[in-house]
Amino acid sequence: MADQNLLENDEPLLVARSLSKSFGRINACRDVSFSLYPGEVLAIVGESGSGKSTLLQMLSGQLAPSAGQVSYRMRDGVTRDLASLGEAERRFLFRTDWGFVHQDPAQGLRMAVSAGANVGERLMAVGWNHYGRIRDTASDWLTRVEIDTARIDDAPRTYSGGMRQRLQIARNLVTEPRLVFMDEPTGGLDVSVQARLLDLLRSLVAELNLAVVIVTHDLAVARLLSHRVMVMKGGRVIETGLTDQVLDDPREPYTQLLVSSILPP
Amino acid sequence: MNAPAYNFAYLDEQTKRMIRRAILKAIAIPGYQVPFASREMPMPYGWGTGGVQVTAAILGPADVLKVIDQGSDDTTNAISIRKFFAKTAGVATTTATDEATVIQTRHRIPETALRAHQVLVYQVPIPEPLRFLEPRETETRRMHALAEYGLMHVKLYEDIARFGHIATAYAYPVKVNARYVMDPSPTPKFDNPKMDNCPALQLFGAGREKRIYAIPPYTQVVSLDFEDHPFEPYRFNAPCALCGAENSYLDEIVTDDKGGRMFVCSDTDYCEGRQAAGHHGSLSAAPYKEKAQEAANG
């Protein structure tokens, strides 16, 4: 079993090959390539307009690249090009083996539907048909993301910002995905709530052996969560490497600027 | 002035052909909502413009038409639609379920079991079962296409979480022919089992939303539920006060301002038929009628 795991961890989960996207004359993303391994957390950092979100959308199959390809190793071990998947397969992948945590929880949650149903929706979508079991699993996940289970029947619109974000995470992780995309998951939260959320994310990632692609402009988030960092500017990856290496010893002038603009604690 | 003012059954022949094509497609794909070019009808939306167009398209001179509204043959809506077709198509009309070949209905399925070669036409206000969960039409169509129906269970989950049981009492979602999830129009869920394996053809017309869908005869129709919260038809726990029926769907009628109420069959034809056959409920007028008769004779 251990050997099997080792073997599986040896092959990349997600591979991007020279991804480019242009909108008319604007090149939002140019020639991005990388491999992501199981259990690895990759942070994509850069300022607004650097192409981070475009890249994330291409990686998660929501946007077709102008050039290049993304391939993913499915649960059956076969690596497939995302563009070759049918829409049904892609959507199935999206709600089982993948997660997507939006910056704004309202985008990733059904705000008018109770928290329990929000978490249970993915289960029901893959054919769970037993109310009791769905509810137990939902309340188990609420506990794991530190939401009081007494609030399982409340709609997320009655939740605070931090709780919404944690609920969104529970909703994504309930089908035990192997890969989670996160778009500025801590944006818009106050500092103490951010810290708690990051702490939670870090333990969940380690516990579930999740691979994560996290887009952020906050270098502190990248430092806390990620193993590797890609720095983007003007649609290009200008620097990539281990997180501590890039953040403690930045090579590119732009990265140096980014790092030096963090306020000293 | 002897020329008829309208074409047979009001709609022109081209329109009827268009609607028939939509109906044929709907029958070929049970439960699938077929878009059609719904016409303005001489009645307001919500009064059955979709049902009327479907009826107009399938009606022939030999047909016998019955129209019910909430089970009743004698409400405004039912009477005006019946008169409308009596006038524009000259077809025979009836209130007896047995005699009718085409039955247009709003919110009920007759208690009398339907036979083969009968057609039941439903008036549908909102054909999309996923509408209140997913407002985007593009998205709901995609969900139907890919048979992604997890969301429908979210609604049932919400019911149980809030009320302890599936509280949806009408327009209860069904799965047709193990493929499409369909809104049975706002019929009470009591009527859902009647749709399953029904010998009659069931057609659904939504005028404002411009959709037609169908359940062909002898098609499997399953009400959605959870393993631990199975589907249960609901009925007031009382016999009909007029005919004493124990198994028909009941209307609750408030009789005074002191909490008095009576329960009566919502299907008037069924209730009258039973009373004519000698069944009486607790509030039936029949004994008084007999006494009055005797007094008049004696």
TrEMBL record, chain A:
<dbReference type="InterPro" id="IPR017871">
    <property type="entry name" value="ABC_transporter-like_CS"/>
</dbReference>
<comment type="similarity">
    <text>Belongs to the ABC transporter superfamily.</text>
</comment>
<comment type="function">
    <text>Involved in beta-(1--&gt;2)glucan export. Transmembrane domains (TMD) form a pore in the inner membrane and the ATP-binding domain (NBD) is responsible for energy generation.</text>
</comment>
<dbReference type="InterPro" id="IPR027417">
    <property type="entry name" value="P-loop_NTPase"/>
</dbReference>
<keyword id="KW-0067">ATP-binding</keyword>
<protein>
    <submittedName>
        <fullName>Phosphonate C-P lyase system protein PhnK</fullName>
    </submittedName>
</protein>
<dbReference type="InterPro" id="IPR003439">
    <property type="entry name" value="ABC_transporter-like_ATP-bd"/>
</dbReference>
<dbReference type="InterPro" id="IPR012700">
    <property type="entry name" value="PhnK"/>
</dbReference>
<dbReference type="GO" id="GO:0016829">
    <property type="term" value="F:lyase activity"/>
</dbReference>
<dbReference type="Pfam" id="PF00005">
    <property type="entry name" value="ABC_tran"/>
</dbReference>
<dbReference type="InterPro" id="IPR003593">
    <property type="entry name" value="AAA+_ATPase"/>
</dbReference>
<keyword id="KW-0456">Lyase</keyword>
<keyword id="KW-0547">Nucleotide-binding</keyword>
<feature type="domain" description="ABC transporter">
    <location>
        <begin position="14"/>
        <end position="259"/>
    </location>
</feature>
From TrEMBL, chain B:
<protein>
    <recommendedName>
        <fullName>Alpha-D-ribose 1-methylphosphonate 5-phosphate C-P lyase</fullName>
        <ecNumber>4.7.1.1</ecNumber>
    </recommendedName>
</protein>
<keyword id="KW-0456">Lyase</keyword>
<keyword id="KW-0408">Iron</keyword>
<keyword id="KW-0949">S-adenosyl-L-methionine</keyword>
<keyword id="KW-0004">4Fe-4S</keyword>
<dbReference type="Pfam" id="PF06007">
    <property type="entry name" value="PhnJ"/>
</dbReference>
<comment type="similarity">
    <text>Belongs to the PhnJ family.</text>
</comment>
<comment type="function">
    <text>Catalyzes the breakage of the C-P bond in alpha-D-ribose 1-methylphosphonate 5-phosphate (PRPn) forming alpha-D-ribose.</text>
</comment>
<keyword id="KW-0479">Metal-binding</keyword>
<dbReference type="InterPro" id="IPR010306">
    <property type="entry name" value="PhnJ"/>
</dbReference>
<keyword id="KW-0411">Iron-sulfur</keyword>
